[in-house]
Amino acid sequence: MCQQEGVKQALTEAVVSRHESVATGMWRMVLSIPVWPGDDPRPGQFMMLRVSDDSDPLLARPFGISGFGRQEEGAEVEIMYRVVGRGTRIMERWRSGQRTAFLGPLGRGFTLPPEGSSSLLIAGGVGLPPLLSLAREMEALGRAGELSLVYGEASRGCLVDLGSDIFPSIETATCTEDGSCGNRGLVTGLLKAKGNGEGRHLFVCGPNPMMKRVMDLTAGRCLSAQYSLEARMACGFGVCTGCAVKLVSGNYVRVCREGPVFDGNGLSEESFGTI
Predict the structure, then answer these.
(1) Domains in the chain, start-ordered, CATH in brackets?
(2) What does the pLDDT read at residue 274?
(3) 275 near 232, Cβ under 8 Å?
(4) Which end of the chain is more exposed for a tag (fewer CB within 10 A), N or C?
């Protein structure tokens, strides 16, 4: 299991123990790992999951880790994903007992905010899973009361039910673009209603245009901001450099290795690119 440069990469075997639809096209999958060889994943880290035993499709797919729990010698890892292409269409057909393998945990995760501070989680669409992991970590530390969440989707059917066993009980505001649930509009509208992050630590994940707008709205207002970027990844550990993004310094970094979580002070509009 590799987390740092120079450590041998190795696939870990896993078995699907739970697989359920949680919204339109959105699935929650729990993987049972008989032997967990490394440290617990940090909120914001991801895995590269094999979706086929042959060469079609050849490449593993990256998924943010939304939950983790130890079980005797092994562990359970939870991911959430939206069906958007060939790999996820294959996964959609998986049932309990399906065997697979993954590489991870990978990447750089979130840094927890100072104890006793106020933090705002900003999630758009499939940006929810890494923030879910962070919220669960904070809840386990008895710090859920320091968090609030703004979460947006296209319509009611696309919203994950945050009142279920999925998300900790924190202050939550939701919106939909068509107005079918919560406020009508974009998640940035909810952000404006909360003072554009004034005096808070921000944790952001979602579509690139949303994150660009969040950066504009909160510049000079928030105490700090951490963004979990998304990018197309082939390897997941920095060899192919296909996921490189440009920082405000002009340097390029790899989302899979130096990220996916970045300090907002180092990002520019170019950092979000397109995927």
Answers:
(1) 12-106 (2.40.30.10), 119-228 (3.40.50.80)
(2) 57
(3) yes
(4) C
